[in-house]
Amino acid sequence: MQKYLKRVDREYEDVRTNYKDMLTLNLPNPADFRLATISFKGAEGTVYAGEEFTLQFRYTDKYPFESPEVMFINKPPIHPLSLIHICRCRRLLTCRSRWSP
User: Which of 83, 87, 89, 92 is an active site residue?
Assistant: First the structure.
């Protein structure tokens, strides 16, 4: 087993052992450690409560010296402040008469 695969395997085992109540680890192809997904639920008492999120991790042979590519594979969480920012930007772009650099 390549050195980086041993490291990834150790980290996956840590998730399975220590975070099994919070995170769900899935290896689409158990023979290939380079691609994994981790699912988790939004914390209670937050705007994310009841939401489920999934991150995809893609590793290269250069791991851990090169970070894995990480991305949300379903809808990403949206912070309330980012919604305000999006609305402001949209308003500025649609009302060109108010636009100023």
Answer: 87
